Amino acid sequence: MLKLPSWKLWFTHLLTTDRGVNVSSRGLLFISVFTFCVLGALALPQLGIYGYLADYCLNPADQWWGRPFAQMGIRFSFTLALATMAGIFLQRKKLRFGEKLIEKQEWLMVLFLLVVWGLYFFAPQTVGRYGSTDHPAIKLAKIFIFTLMMTHVITDLNKLKGLFAVLSSAAFLLGIKAWSVPYSAFSRGRLEGIGGADFSEANFFAAFMAAMLPLIGIMFLRSRWPGKLYYAACGAFTANAVVLCRSRGAFLGLVMGAVAAFIFAPKKYRKHIVILCMAGMVGVIYLSDDFFIQRIMSISTDQSEMDESSSSRIRLWKAGLRMVASHPLGIGPGNWYQTIGRYIPEYEGKDSHSTYVKCFAELGVIGLAVFLLFLLQSSLNLRHIYLQVHSLPPPEEEEFTQLYFAILVALVIFMTCALTITMIYTEILWVLLMLPVCLKRSLDNYLQDQEETDGF
Fold this sequence. Notes:
mainly alpha; WaaL-like; two-stranded antiparallel sheet; membrane
C-alpha cells in the first residue's frame, strides 16, 4: 500500500474528522491568518499585536477549529509575541515613541510589577493552586512585556483604529458564539465558558463585552454605510452576550458608562451617542427575561435586602480589610484563596469578588497605592489628550476626540465592573488601561509631524 507523507496524513486527518468540512475550512482559515500575522509582524509589528489580542480574546487552543494545531505543539500567543518582538527589533529605526521612550504610566506599571515580585519572594509561598497555570507574579510579568510592546508599536491613529477594529471583531465573534451555544452552556441561568483564557467566567466575560461596546459605537459612528452595518451587528451580538451573562456588575458598569457618555460626549456626536445609548437600553430591555430582571432588581445597599451572593461579597470584602489590618504589606500575590479560610472558614478557597479588595489584601498598602496612582495617571493622560486636541485642525481633532471618548467610556465601564469582579491579574485589564498611552503617543507623533511640516 502506498504510504502518504506525514504532512499529507495530517492534512487528510484534518479534512476527515467528525466535523467534516467545517474543521478544514475554519481551521485552515485560522492557521492562515495566524501565519500571516506571525510573518507580517516581522515587517509590520502591529500585525503581531493584532494577532496576539485576537488569540487572547478568542482562545483558539480551546476551540474545535484551533485545537488540532495546538495539539501539534504550536503555542499561538507565545509565537505571536516572539514574532512581534523580532519585528520591533528589525523595524526599530522606523518605530516612533512620541516625546518619551517610557511614559509615567509605564514607569508606574513597572513599579507595580516590582511590588508584586517583591512580595512573591518575601511573602508566604502560594500552596496548591498554580500547578498547571502561571503564578500571578509570572503571569503579570508576561502581561507587562506585551503591553509595553503594544504601547511602543500602536503609536499612530491608523494603528489604533486597527486595534479597535480587532477588539470589536473579536467581541462580534464571541457574541455569535454566545448566541449559538446550547442551553447546556448555561449554569444557573447564566452563560459560562465563553471568552478568553482568563475571562471565560460569566462576570468576567460580561465585563469584557460591556467594555467593548463604546469601541464598537465609535467605530459605527465613524464608518461609512457598509462599516455601519458591520459594527451595528457587532454591537447587537455583543450586547446580547452581556444580557446572557446576567451579570449585575456588568449592568452597573454599563449604567456608569452611560452616565460618562452623556457627560463627555463630543458635541458633534452628542445627539447620535444619546440615541445609541437609548437604543441600547431598549435592546437590553427587549432581550432581558424575568431571571435577569430579578437579578438586577436585587441590587441593594441594604444588607438585609441582599441575596446570598451579594451579602457574601460584603463579608469577603470585610475579611479583606481584616487581612490588611493583620498584614499591611500584603499577604502576597496569589495567596487570597489559601488565606480567606482563616477569616471565614466556610468560605475556604472563595474568590474576593473585587479587584480593589484583592489588590489591597494581597499587595498591601503599597500595592494599592501604586495601582491607584496608575489609574490616576491613566486619567491624567486622557485629560492631557483632551486639552491638546482642541488646537488641532478639525479632521484630526474629530478623530482624536472620538478615540479619546471611546477609551474613556470603556475604562469607566470596566473599572466599575472591577468593584465586584476580580481582574487584577487579567490581561485585558492592563491592555485597556494602557490604551491612553497609545493614544498619547499617537498625538505626540502627529504633533511632531506638524512641527516638521511647518518648519519646511
